[in-house]
Specification:
heterodimer; A: 389 residues; 2 domains; 11 helices; B: 193 residues; alpha+beta; six-stranded antiparallel beta sheet; two-stranded antiparallel sheet
């Protein structure tokens, strides 16, 4: 695993905007960063990242029925009791999942260590599945990369395969916070994949969802039988419209049971059952009243994009990321610092996180995020990668 | 060295993705066929024009009146209803819930779906469109509209309609608002992770 400098494509910003990737720069700072790329060996992908991803995915799925059968575990994960049956039914009916992303701390040598599962509303999908694929194609054509260069990225191919196989009622509606360019970009890309799979797809704003006779309907009163939502289940369950979930026959992507796997409480539960697993870090439920010991990280059960994370490094130096989350309980996880690379162009150190995608139950590829701090955030730069031996 | 299997998508393209796309609805093999129906203001008009079929006129009219109870749009106040359908053009809806009463527009005509498709007496109609009540909105008194606000005709007589446009839907009170309040409160730039 190496970080290498490369000449940027001359017109990539115009190209990005022409394909709807208008959040390539966020608040004047680069989000898509192709001044460098990461290079992995085949061994690192096929013997490390890929099997680690599928192993952790299998362990996580195996936890779902156990949690659903235990009031104690549901309570520990702060799942609202009014929705326990709703979640359990969605699992018993085997409502299918589409995708997820797990974040690893991986330095190319030690086994990848799971930091968290983003299994409900994972983003950075377009950058991973489409834009870095095009980057490799074009940089190979420009002779900036050797012809043998490949990429761990069959994301789009697998998304289309899964959409084609889901057999959901149509049209499949898609919803998200409509004025978030990033969320909208992710949803547009998923709609693109669905349409290529032959699925009728239609966007509806979150606030446009309506109810008639206990069913979700669109603004014209048409029933919504299937809905992809890029909006956290834990948000939905606490809003006024949550009662409609209990009466509507709408089938959701991701399905309700995925709420369990986007909960940080899954990390101590995995550790309790698979202590010492090479891809897991020691984790415990945490009452958050004590001082965090050196070499540990504290995270809320529900949080996103690095928000509300407290970290104390091995020397005892604390680092805290602000955010709006918290309240529902915390976990603490053994610190496994992200590997540090040198950004030679900017002459500074960067911390590198690997997001590994699971599509239709299979490891489908990776997207890499870089930050100047040890906690990656929403604003962390996306850097493409290649595979080369 | 053994040749490696390819680890990336064989082919990747964007077919329909455009900035600010709001709808990627692809039309499937939908119900684009056209069926014939007849619009009447009331049962007398039907009987005058079809003196040989007065029994059928009566059956259709009764069916439209029954459907009127089922599908007419509901309002929580008479004022709201009249603002859409005009003064003294609304009536109380049949009581369906223990909680509260509702108002709905008066039936101003009906669409007879079986006048052309009815086979011999004793056989049921095949295909066709459902017989149903029609309404007139306050600001467009020239059009007959379905309970779903679909204009079907500007006067009595035969009309061509797409069955999908005149499907019957139970009347219900739509509640709007949806989701999104939590993200708005947190002022998060993104709800993804």
């Amino acid at each position: 695993m190496q970080r290498k400098t490369i000449t940027e494509r001359r017109d990539w910003r115009a190209y990005a905007e022409s394909v709807g990737f208008d959040f390539h720069t966020i608040n004047g700072e680069p989000y898509w960063d192709e001044s460098a790329y990461y290079q992995f060996s085949w061994e690192q992908v096929e013997a490390q990242l890929e099997p680690a991803t599928e192993a952790v995915h299998a362990l996580a799925l195996a936890l779902v029925p156990e949690i659903l059968a235990s009031e104690a575990l549901l309570t520990q994960l702060a799942i609202p009791p009014a929705f326990w049956d709703y979640l359990a039914n969605s699992w018993q009916q085997q409502q299918p999942q589409l995708y997820g992303r797990m974040d690893f701390s991986y330095d190319g040598q030690q086994p990848p260590k799971l930091l968290e599962l983003n299994y409900d509303t994972p983003t950075a999908l377009f950058e991973s599945g489409f834009f870095q694929w095009m980057w490799l194609e074009q940089q190979s054509a420009n002779r900036q990369l050797p012809p043998a260069a490949d990429q761990f990225n069959s994301i789009q191919e697998k998304l289309i395969e899964v959409f084609a196989s889901l057999a959901l009622p149509q049209p499949l509606y898609f919803t998200c916070v409509a004025d978030s360019a990033e969320d909208r970009g992710n949803v547009n890309y998923l709609m693109e994949c669905a349409v290529q799979a032959g699925v009728q797809s239609q966007f509806i704003g979150l606030e446009q969802l309506s109810e008639a006779g206990g069913q979700f309907v669109d603004v014209l009163g048409n029933p919504i039988h299937a809905l992809f939502k890029l909006y956290p289940w834990e948000f939905m369950l606490q809003e006024d419209f949550a009662s409609v979930l209990l009466t509507s026959h709408t089938q959701f992507l991701e399905p309700p049971w995925k709420l369990l796997l986007s909960n940080k409480g899954i990390l101590p539960l995995l550790w309790q059952r698979h202590r010492g697993h090479p891809n897991l870090l020691e984790s415990h439920f945490d009452d958050s009243t004590t001082t965090l010991p050196s070499g540990w990280v504290r995270k809320p059960l529900f949080s996103r994009e690095g928000a509300n994370i407290e970290l104390r490094d091995f020397a005892g130096v604390p680092l805290h990321a602000d955010g709006p989350y918290g309240g529902a309980g915390m976990i603490r996880q053994r610190l496994c610092p992200l590997p540090v690379f040198v950004d030679q162009q900017r002459n500074r150190e960067v911390h590198t996180l690997i997001g590994s995608w699971v599509v239709g139950g299979q490891a489908a590829g990776i997207g890499i995020r870089e930050d100047d701090t040890p906690i990656t955030r929403n604003s962390s730069r996306f850097v493409p990668h290649i595979m080369l031996d | 060295m053994l040749p490696h299997s390819r680890k990336r998508s064989r082919h990747v393209a964007l077919m329909v993705m455009v900035p600010a796309a709001t709808s990627l609805l692809l039309s499937g093999c939908g119900p684009n066929r056209v069926e014939q129906g007849v619009v009447y203001q009331d049962v007398q008009e039907c009987s005058q024009q079809n003196p040989e079929a007065t029994a059928l006129c009566a059956t259709d009219y009764q069916e439209a009146q029954v459907q009127h109870q089922n599908v007419a749009p509901r309002y929580t106040t008479r004022e709201e209803c009249e603002s859409d359908f005009g003064t003294e053009r609304c009536e109380a809806a049949p009581q369906q819930h223990a909680s509260g009463s509702f108002f709905m527009p008066m039936m101003m005509g009906y669409l007879a779906g079986q006048m052309f498709s009815r086979p011999n007496v004793g056989q049921s109609a095949t295909g066709g469109i459902p017989t149903q009540p029609l309404y007139k909105s306050r600001d467009d008194q020239s059009s007959f509209r379905t309970a779903s606000n679909q204009p079907v005709a500007t006067g009595s007589g035969a009309v061509n309609v797409r069955p999908g446009n005149v499907a019957l839907r139970p009347a219900s009170i739509m509640r709007s608002g949806g989701f999104g309040a939590t993200a708005a409160r947190m002022a998060a730039s993104s709800s993804g992770s």
